């Protein structure tokens, strides 16, 4: 096993809105797991890297966009656990702080146009097909092993919560949480907030990953603010206010939209009073570096 096992803390957040609606709101701070192997990206990588170690692979090969939290997490985790790292980056060659950090951690980058990027298996086989040491990791860390890591979030909870909220990109984190909730036989509703447009498809995606009944899954697919990595002035203003009132930093791509959704649902009385709510902070704060001009 990899020797890095950090249980993220849970803290209660007190805001006038929560008192008014008579709910208690807690946050699991997966953003505090590691500054660069952040949040759910560590959860998703943990068992994947174990598998790679067991198979005696020494090179992690993965995929992502130019601001990908997953690329940075893989670069840093690779350095930490003794792997070389290589990434296919979507789109034309550019320079930005996240890619620079990836390189400082030793990751080798290859930029590929959007057409070629679509077929990741082909890219891997073209370049590394004969390399016994290379290990394929899908975009965003997507995969079965990732689910196990995410389900462990539930194992770490000491208290019971009526509602758990998470942001949703590929749905792997939500699927892992649902798996954990089922495994422990909890009466908890999971609320997944897609951060991209047309997020209704994620219900099917989550079902496919867990193969569980989804009675206790609620998808809130109207909080994407125009699409993936898109923002609105209202979202930015919300992030500023929340961060100033709590000292907890959010970014606009995932966690900002998540908290915006929770507050909106509370204001609309869609979450009953006298319940306990847990919000998962999935990290990814380096994403802010690409969006500072919005603030
Ligand atoms: C990648 C990411 C997500 C999305 O996780 P999925 O498992 O793909 O749904 C959520 N939050 C942050 C901060 C992320 O970096």
Automatic annotation (TrEMBL):
Protein name per UniProt: 1-aminocyclopropane-1-carboxylate deaminase
Tryptophan synthase beta chain-like PALP domain mapped to chain residues: 17-283
GO molecular function terms noted in the UniProt entry: D-cysteine desulfhydrase activity
Keywords: Pyridoxal phosphate
Organism of provenance: Sphingobacterium paludis
Family to which this protein belongs: Belongs to the ACC deaminase/D-cysteine desulfhydrase family.
Cofactor: pyridoxal 5'-phosphate
Protein origin, superkingdom: Bacteria
Catalytic site positions: 68 (nucleophile)
